[in-house]
Amino acid sequence: MASSELTGGLRYFEDTSETITLLVPGGFLPANTASSDFDALTPRLVATWLPSPDLTVYASYSEGFRSGLNQTPLTLLAAPLPPAEADRLHNYEVGARGRLFNGFATYDAALYYIKWDDIHLAGSLLYGTPPVYISATINGESASGFGADLSLTLHPSDGLDIGGSFSYNDLAQDADVFQNGILVYSAGDRLSFSPAVTASVFLNYDFALTSELDGRFNINANYTSEQILNVLPNGAQTSLCDVVGVAPNQIATCFSDEPVFVNASFDISSHSGHTLTIFATNLTDEDGVAAPDYSPTTAFRPRPTTIGLQLELRY
Predict the structure, then answer these.
(1) Mean pLDDT by 10 residues, the chain (315 residues)
(2) Of 220, 119, 114, 116, whose CA–CA distance to 168 is shortest?
(3) How much is the pTM?
(4) Please, which of 32, 83, 188, 273 could form a disulfide with 21 given CB 3.0 to 4.6 Å?
């Protein structure tokens, strides 16, 4: 028999951000105290329809809130930036989850639209001679975009699961963003550290080894598309950033690679809870830049192929 549900809720947040800088003898940071207050009331509403035991359909509206924060003492040393204001997320979503072919397949699918007001963004400042980078948090006017999530798992036999997931979003800046009069992001730019596509595939197999021991084999692969980071160039040329021809006080764009990580593990567990795991991470020895950075010396690169043994004992 079909049924429906309506669920709602409210959350209230109140937060105070305080920063205290002590004057250290011989130091270069002035003593300073900063305090900022933030509060928000965020609603959530979900309408759910269950036409059969194998299908659930829903539509939801929710809001998210993230407190603002004071700039760090080093940031204020480079520029008198105001505290970052709180940002607020508006999320509209429709989706479905269920089973197909008598449980042979299970799925979860969603389409959503996000409107993100006063969004926190990574800023960058140059200070000193020679110039060094100092990070900052700034607010953009807003960002918005559509997205989709899909996951599918097949259950061809007892203990065997094969599946994957795919996510896409086109979240982008709605307006130009300036920092100290410098154009940091143009309308239509993607957000820093925001991949458009992520995807994964996996295989899990659970089976009995003996009457007292169970085995589990897992192998998975994960893909992340290119990410960007906008920074002020300090004149240094690097293969990670598009800085050729960038004028002073203009932004250069740094890029990540598009890494694929493959991992595998084999577990032997007792019914009393003890587990022995043999694992291997980054089987393909992926060594690309996993996150964008302005410097090849500080860019995050993954750990090379690692094989290990882990023992968990429970009493």
Answers:
(1) 92 84 63 79 95 95 91 81 90 97 96 95 79 82 96 96 97 90 87 94 96 95 93 62 60 87 96 93 92 74 94 89
(2) 114
(3) 0.84
(4) 32
